[in-house]
Each structure stands twice: as structure tokens, then as C-alpha cells.
Design goal:
Structural class: alpha/beta
Number of helices: 8
Order of helices and strands: HEEHEHHEHEEHEHH
Number of strands: 7
Shape: globular
Largest sheet: 7 strands, mixed
Radius of gyration: 18 Å
Helix content: 25-40%
Strand content: 5-15%
Length: 289
Amino acid sequence: IAAKTDDVKTTGFDRAANRRPFIEWYRPAASNKTDICVMTVSGGGFDVTCDAARLQPVIDRLVRAGITVADVTYRTPRPEGLPIHQSAWEDLQRAVRVVKSEAAKRGFSPDKVGATGISAGAKAVLLVATRSETRAYEPVDEIDAIPANLAFAIPQAPAYVLEDGATGPNAKKGIGAEVVAELDFDGKTCPMCFLQGAADVYSPLGSVRLYQRLRAMGIPAELHLFADRWHGFHGDATIGDRGTAWDHWCDRMLSSIARLYPEVDAARWVWSLPPQSEEELRQLESQLP
């Protein structure tokens, strides 16, 4: 199926009618629009797509910064008799091409399409980011002539990227493990920004190894590890100091985009705290230049 977890749980959900992957578009205000597009990709172990709530702050921040967002829902659960990521990789590679085909109509550059994903979604993003020159599926129409490479990638808590955790949490905590073979790091591998919790059962050493590989290739990269944070490193605004990273992980992600594309106005999207009310939002907006 291709549906978000909450949709699948609704009464009367029809699996047969929801087998195709799909894209939901978010459009920024014309007064603040850039020519950048970011694809957002849910995690869920390739069994479900469960990160809509965690991705929503990302989508909101990107749109507020003038960036077009294409939220991709891929097929789940894991395919039988194939690599666990195969369906997601096929769907995301196709989605990159579809998104680029929409660039002229939606007002962004096909050369400024990036992607961010969480957990399994981060693995899917990495597959596209590091091996776009390898076809995940046989061409079906003229859209498949469009290159599938990304301009940048922001993997959040990537799972299944080291050999000791290719299908689940890292058996040896990632210590001494190599990067899985399917991440090729081909000639079109793009700049990346990694974000992960240091206490993640999907070892943060995966992000470290990937960062090292990019550095060795001379490709710009950032690495942000949040101490004592687990797989949901994004934190929780309701638990005070125990919510480390909840107030600034989006800022780290968006600042990496601004380094690549200075036209992104940092003052329009860096907030020290998320607005708690309409009144607070108005107060924050009044401080913008």
C-alpha cells in the first residue's frame, strides 16, 4: 500500500484503492518564494509511514522560508523476497523525477531539489543521494529520462546504513561496522547534513561513517549529534531539559540549506522557541526585518 499510518487505521480503509505512491505539495507565499524545493520522506522501518507529526514542523519551517515542499508517501510494508528498501527506493527515485518535471509549473529550479527523511526515510533519501546513476526500476515513460540526482540531502537518524544493522537496530552498536554495500557514493553524490541522537539504537556511527565518506570525497557535509537523545532525537517541548534538541533541530537543518543557497533569508525562519499561540506568533513576526 501507499498510505500514511493514520490513514491506514481509519475505518473502512481500502488497501486495494491505495497502492500507488503519491506526493503532497506545500506552496510558500509568493512574497517570500525561492526557487528551492525539498522532498520530505517518512520513516517507519519500511513497514509503515509513521512520521507525519515529526515532519510537519520541517514542512512548516521550509514553507515559511519560501521553499516548496513535496511530501512523498511510498509503498509499505517491506516487499517479500527483495531488499527491505526496494519499494521505497523505487518510489523515491521516481518521485525525484516527477518533482523535477513539475519545476517549471510550480516555480522552482530542477537543479535545486533536495530531500530530507527520517529513519527508514533517511535510508531511502541516502539511496537516491548516493546512487542516482543506478536505476531502481525500468523506465515507464518520458519522465524517466530526467536525472534522479539530488542537490542536497538531510538524513535524520538514518537507519539500516551499517552492516551490523542492515535490517534492524545495530547488533554491535555500529562499532567496526562498514557502510552497507547498496550506498554506492557515485559521481553525483550530493552535499549532506546529518542529524541524529547519540543514544540511538540505530547507531549514530552510521551518520559518522557516512560523513567521513563524504569528507574523503571532498563533498561538503555537516554532522550534528545530540547527546543522550534516542531514535526520536527531535525532542519534546513538554519535558524541559530532557527535551534536548526540540527547540533547534529544524534550525540546524535549515541553516545547512542557507549555506548552499544564501538567498534563503535566515531571519525569516530561525526561531529560538516554537510559537505557542497566535499572539506569540505575531510578536515573533514583528521582530523580523
